[in-house]
Predict the structure of Pyrroline-5-carboxylate reductase catalytic N-terminal domain-containing protein.
Amino acid sequence: MTQTLGIIGAGHLASYTVAGLRNGGDNRRIVVSPRNRELSARLGRDYGCEVVASNQAVIDTADWILLAVRPEFLNPVLAECRFRGDQLVISCIAGAVPICPPCAEVKVLFGCLGSVIPLDNEE
């Protein structure tokens, strides 16, 4: 089953990520937050993403969550969000894509964008 990808932070990083995924042949459902209305609307129009009302709506809709916010916005964003225990959260905040625990499907998904770093533990 193909997982729905939710992206929190509809800025330049999210735009490049979605473009890379779509250009790499990934056609899964992608939902994005409305952080930057112009960019999120373009993601909807150009790449078939679904723009939802809030960061929490992204979390409520998606199986996998990609955090694509600037580092200084991470804590305020996380403070307002409630994740489910069955969701996979992926961070693109540091410029690489670390995933923990390792997940072959995520590695394949983001491998077309560059380096994916699977981590065996959170430390």
Notes: The radius of gyration is 13 Å. The chain has a mean pLDDT of 88. The longest helix spans residues 12-23.
